[in-house]
Amino acid sequence: MTEFSDHEETAYEALSLDADDPRWAFGTGFSDPLAGIDTSVPENVDAADLTAYCLMLGDDALVLSHRLQQWITRLPELEEEAAVANVALDLLGQARLLLSRAAAAEGSGRSEDDYAYRREQHEFLNVRLVERADADFAEMVTRLLIFSAFRLAVLQRLRDSRDPVLAAIAAKATNEVTYHRDYAAGWVVRLGDGTEGSHDRMVAALDAVWPYVDELFRTGDVERRLTGVAVDPGEVRNEVETVLEQVFSEAGLKRPDVPPAALVSGRAGREGVHTEALSYILAELQSVARSHPGAEW
Amino acid sequence: MSIDQAYPAEVGHGAVPMADAAAAGPVRADWPLWEVFLRGKRGLNHVHVGSLHAADAEMALRHARDVYTRRNEGVSIWVVPTAAITASSPDEKDPFFAPSGDKVYRHPTFYDIPDSVPHM
After folding, report:
1. Rounded mean pLDDT of A145-166?
2. For B78-95, what is each residue's pLDDT tens digit?
3. Which domain covers residue B63, as residue numbers?
4. CA distance linking residue A129 with residue A147, whole number of Å
5. Count of domains in chain B?
6. Which of A129, A61, A123 is nearest to A273 (CA)?
7. Looking at residue B36, which CATH number applies to its domain?
8. Which residues from B are below 8 Å from A182, CB to CB?
9. Given strand B33-39, what is the order of strands in its sheet?
10. A112 and which of A99, A131, A266, B117 could share a cystine (Cβ 3.0–4.6 Å)?
11. Which ranges of chain A would DSSP assign to H, the alpha helix?
12. Three-class SS of residue A59?
C-alpha cells in the first residue's frame, strides 16, 4: 500500500483486487482457459477431422471479427464503438484458441498465424454468412443476432464434447456469445420497433442476410464422423429458429420469404466455396504478413 | 415546407426528414447522460467511475458494461440519470463544510477499535 492511501481512499483502490501491484488499477485476475489441459487428440478421433472442425468454428469467428472491426470509427456513438470492439475482440480470442487447437490436433508444426495469414481463400472453412460487407448498422446487428444465436446453440452443446480442449473453449465462449446475442437482439428490437425508417431498414437487412441462414444448419461429413466431439448443426435448427422468432415478434419483424443462397456443385463455405467478399477480407487481413514474411511484432 | 422545417439541424447525425416521423415526445439531438457506479470484486460499496450517453436505462447498463468493465473491474453496476442527481454547490462550500473542521471531538479517535470490527 502507498502512503497516499493511509489517509485517502481512491476510487481505484475501492475496486482493486491487487492493491499491492500499483501498475494494475483494477487487478488482473485473468485466467488462462486452457491452462493445464492436455491437447492430445482423444482416442478414436481422426486428427484431420478434428483439425477441420476447429478451423470451421475458428474461421467463423475470425472473419466476422474482421467485419466488425471495420465498423470501428464509423459507429454513431462512442459507447457503441466500445461495444462492437468488445464483441470483435471476443471473437478474435475465440478464433485464436480454436486455430491453436487445430494446430495442436494437426501436429504439423503450423501455428495459429499460419492458419490466419498463410492460407488461401479455398482453405477457409467459415460459413458464407460472415463474409458480406455490411451495408448499414441494421445489417451489422441483424447478422450478429443470427450468427450469435447459432453459435451459442452450438457452443452450449460443445461444452460436453469428448475433446476436453474444445469443451473448455466452448465453456469460456458461451458467456461471451450470450452477451453478443443479447446486444444484437436489443438493437434489432429497438430498430424494428422504432420509427418507420428504422423498421424499413431492418426489413431490408433481414432480406439481405437471410439467404445465408440455411447453410448454417447443413451437416457435413466432418461433423457426421466426429460424433460426440463435434455438434451436428442440423440439431440446433429448431432452437435457433425459436430464438429468432421470439426476437422478430418483439421487433415487429417477419421471417423473410427469400430463397437460400445457391450452393456451388453442392458445396458452400464449410467446403471452402466462398463469396467474392471473403477475398477482400483476406487481402486486408493478410497483407502485412504476406509482404513481410517471417516478421514478428 | 421549407428545407429548414423538413430537416432540422437539432436532430444531429445528419439531416433526417421529420415531417412524417411519428415522434412520441420531443425529439432530442443527443442521448441523455447517465452516471455509472461499479462495485468491484472486493469492494463493499458501489463507486462512481464515470458517465456515458444512452437512450434509456437498459441501454445505459449495457453501455456501462462495455465501457467500464472491460478490464475485469466490476461485479455489479448501477446507472443513474445525471439529471436525477442533486449536487451541493461550490458557492456553499464554506457554510457546508468548514464548520466540521475544528470539531475534533467528533472523531472516534479516543478509543481502540477491536481487530474483529471490519470496514471502519
Report:
1. 95
2. 999 999 999 888 888 888
3. 27-90
4. 8
5. 1
6. A123
7. 3.10.20.520
8. 62
9. B47-53, B33-39, B76-81
10. A99
11. 4-7, 11-15, 47-69, 78-106, 112-117, 137-158, 164-192, 196-209, 221-225, 237-251, 276-291
12. helix
Q: B42 and A17 in contact by Cβ < 8 A?
A: yes
What is the Cα–Cα distance from B41 to A41, expressed in whole angstroms? Answer: 37
Grid cell at residue B117: 470490527
Asked if residue B120 has pLDDT above 80, the reply is no
Q: What is the DSSP string of A66-82?
A: HHHHTTTTTSSSHHHHH
Asked whether residue B112 carries a pLDDT value surpassing 90, the answer given is no
Alpha-carbon Rg for chain B in angstroms: 23
- A74 CA: distance to closest CA in chain B (Å): 12
Selection from A159, A145, A154 nearest residue A248 by Cα: A145
| d(C-alpha A86, C-alpha A95), whole Å | 14
What is the nearest CA distance from A20 to chain B, expressed in angstroms?
A: 14
Question: Which pairing describes strands B47-53 and B33-39: parallel, antiparallel, or unpaired?
Answer: antiparallel
pLDDT bin (cut points 50, 70, 90) of residue B9 is very low
Interface touch A15/B62, C-beta < 8 Å: no
Contact A14 B74 (CB under 8 A): no
Average pLDDT along chain A: 88
d(CA B117, CA A227): 58
Contacts of B13 (CB under 8 A, 6+ apart): A76
In a domain, B44, yes or no: yes
CB contact under 8 A, B52 and A186: no
B100 inside domain: no
Domain assignment of residue B63, yes or no: yes
A232 close to A224: Cβ distance less than 8 angstroms = yes
pLDDT at residue A274 above 50? yes
Q: What residues of chain B lie within 8 A of the CB of A76, using their CB?
A: 13
Query: Is B76 contained in some domain?
Result: yes
Cα dihedral B52, B55, B57, B61 sign: negative
**Angstroms from B95 CA to nearest CA on chain A:** 23
Task: Scan for cell 436525477, then name that residue.
Answer: B84
Domain boundaries, chain A: 46-291
Cα distance between residue A84 and residue A82, in whole Å: 6
Residues paired with B34 in a beta bridge? B52, B81
Can you tell me the mean pLDDT for B94-101? 81
